[in-house]
Amino acid sequence: MIKGVRGAPDILPDESGKWQALESVARDVLDRYGYAEIRTPIFERTELFVRGIGEATDIVEKEMYTFDDRGGESLTLRPEATASMIRAYAEHNLGAKSSLVKLYLIGPMFRHERPQSGRFRQFHQVDVEAIGLPGPAVDVEVVALLHHLLEAWGLRGMRLHLNSIGDPACRPRYREAFLEYLGAHREALCGDCHIRMTKNPLRVLDCKQPGCRAVASEAPALSGYLCDACRAHFSEVCASLDALRIAYEVDERLVRGLDYYTRTTFEFLNPALGAQNAVAGGGRYDGLVEELGGRPTPSIGFAVGEERILTSLAVQAGPVETPPITGVYVATAGAVELRPAMELTQILRRRGLRAALDLEGRSLKGQLRQANKDRFRYSVILGTEELARGRVTLKDMIGGAQQEVPLAEVADRLAALPEREIV
Ligand code: HAM
Prior knowledge:
The protein is an alpha+beta fold. The protein contains 16 helices and 16 strands.
């Protein structure tokens, strides 16, 4: 038997309800904040991600699913959505009508990472982007939206980490000072960090090796190097979050794994998860649109990992709720043909009810057992003798009471039952 690919799990029928619920809550909340959905292809030209995410990032260096198509063009399965959304924004000139364009995308992403608990090679994100404005008010609204989303999903105990990583005016100064510091502690750093020092030194702050962590914890802080404009932006973001009573922790070590960020960066962490405890992350990326060939367009956004939300909910959940008892099972007794039962079942479904019938030729007893197992609230039994009189039996599967009713009226009666009876 051919098995699925490691790190790319199936979402099975008894799990898909949770995914649907998660995504429908997301759509509802995003709609309230004025975001419109965009769906971009799951593959793009490789160059888009190399330029967008940055050549010296782990994603571009090690994790992309890149292939040449039959025409010899290098394509990549999207490892994230921001670059694709910005490409579409610029390509279709979506900014022409409005100075702030609010987009969201829900779908699978692909990264060739080492699979482990909470880390997959195909995973799903809800990605949100506010494209067009530079001011801290947008940062605050975007973080407040993410906070609202997590709350609407029912998550508790999430911790917001916040940082400013400066901009092209001030980050080079920090980079220089940081490199000087790293140079003095070179022998304590791992081999990977030696390479990071030449390619992308800030990533050293994110290394999990104990030696590197020790060096990083003593490193000069980025906050000391922010230019006045970045400092003012960050303090405005912090003050507005305080005003909205959204708790956060300033985390100087929060550098994100993608190169496009400027100024505000943030992550929501769930301390109840293991090593992969970031449920969502994002930040401002004022240079990306231009980098990808568009007009200068300051923007900010985030992505939520759907698997990590569902795991977080499972970790905090109490006993599993049993599904409600709903709908109607249409059963046949004796030699009654299937056709009238099929017809009635279709009518009931069109009337908005959950309905089923037996397609396996079970006995009446077997059919009623199945109706109970599948949690049907009522059954309608079609018997030869009653049908000849144009009547059927309506049975309450909870109390067991039953009554004869005209076949022509049964759909009306069932549809008219109070909702709590039927649902
Ligand atoms: P990211 O931090 O790479 O950011 O991913 C965002 C979230 O996706 C993570 O916090 C995590 O929950 C989930 N995630 C990432 N990789 C995996 C994986 N291998 N398995 C399971 N879940 C994963 C971005 O992708 C940026 N595009 C976010 C953004 C949008 N920044 C600005 N706009």
